[in-house]
Give the backbone structure.
Amino acid sequence: MCTEQCLRHAAAHPVVSRRGALAGLAGLVAATAVPAPASAHASRVVRDLTHPFTTTFPTFADGEEARRGPYKSIETDGYYMQEWRIVEHTGTHVDAPNHFVTGGRAVTDLTPEELVLPAIVLSIRRRAAHNADAVLAVADIVAHERKWGRIPAGAAVLLHTGWDERAGSARRYRNPDGAGVMHFPGFSADACEWLLAERGIRCLGVDTLSLDPGRSEDYPVHFALLGADRYGIENLRGLDTLPAHGATLVVGVTPWEQGSGGPARVLGLSG
Amino acid sequence: MCTEQCLRHAAAHPVVSRRGALAGLAGLVAATAVPAPASAHASRVVRDLTHPFTTTFPTFADGEEARRGPYKSIETDGYYMQEWRIVEHTGTHVDAPNHFVTGGRAVTDLTPEELVLPAIVLSIRRRAAHNADAVLAVADIVAHERKWGRIPAGAAVLLHTGWDERAGSARRYRNPDGAGVMHFPGFSADACEWLLAERGIRCLGVDTLSLDPGRSEDYPVHFALLGADRYGIENLRGLDTLPAHGATLVVGVTPWEQGSGGPARVLGLSG
């Protein structure tokens, strides 16, 4: 945020004078003894379920990598900002219904209430560690409910596979075989359809590149979920830091115009 | 999210078969009688404080407008997604300390706890309706506290000016005079410094293009706030839908790599 006014001002006031002002402010702040967060919020635990949005994060397909570059610099312009080229399905991001469904809702059509949901975390990490093609089955959900109770209506069901730990390496995260077919865990179509029909879930999330397992050829989970006017979240991280039940998911997706989804900041609130 | 696998599949399975599958799913969903959100969340009010992120939203300076274009389409590719070119300070967005401060924290350095804050809303709308150069003064904060109680430490202080209602028109939102100097309301430097020093606030937010009033030439609020390692939010909307005290602000800013801030989904939770 700077106009020609700013540029004129920068020309008239060398950077050193701004630094001087800042030094004075730093003294002011140092003397202020910054207080802790308000007590009303002290007991709330906030978990970041979002990967940093970088130009090197693994993408589902080649060519989708984000690019960034300097747009203004403090040295030259008095302030710093970057510009980006992004494809909507990069990094931790939302899949809106219109991603797969003609006439489906865009990301701007998701209501605020749909972005704040009870979070349920199911884990297949142990199985996925030995079988990259592992999927969440209906039996897993039944076993989960026997232990933790019924999944509430309107929930976000989040699948922890442990794959987020591989995201530093595109090769390990995509995990292609010799024929180029990817292998990573995901939801089974049966589990997705059961959760829609029997539990009225609002959202599915996963810590891999896709709701469907990597080797899927026809994306039945995407078609079922988005076809049911629900939305998905991919490339989550740290799902094991949330309790299995009781947390609240906040899906901070930018309302990209006519967006098929897009980069989001996803937080888990508990405590 | 689609690979060559998807393209091969799309070639092998005409779109009509997908539509058939969707029609079947639509029947499934229609029969499901989608339940209401979980009761645990039924009493929570979620307010969207974010403008849709569009290519026509007014920018602080020319050339910063977002651009978008089709990247894949359902007709051709079996799925839809867009690509974007964005400058970080566009739409409803965060200003991180490094926007103005060399060596300041990037948006990725903000902690999750800093993104979930007690929200305090102060309004100068009535005054701003008659004076586009109106600013929040320390006396306004004192009067606010007399009515509503002390601003808690670690709060996000949000300034409602009513300017969000002008965002459909760049001319009215920027409101330049004959010399091109913009006129819109904002925080006074004194108010910002007082809130930092006396109330240990964490964040300032405003429903205009800038924390500083439009006619500012040297951005003292930016320098004070970001120089104190705090962050700002600009181009908020709907601040009058939040209570003056008691709501929680969730700042869903994408963690843009080395970002000087960037587009965010900002929600207010109350009730």
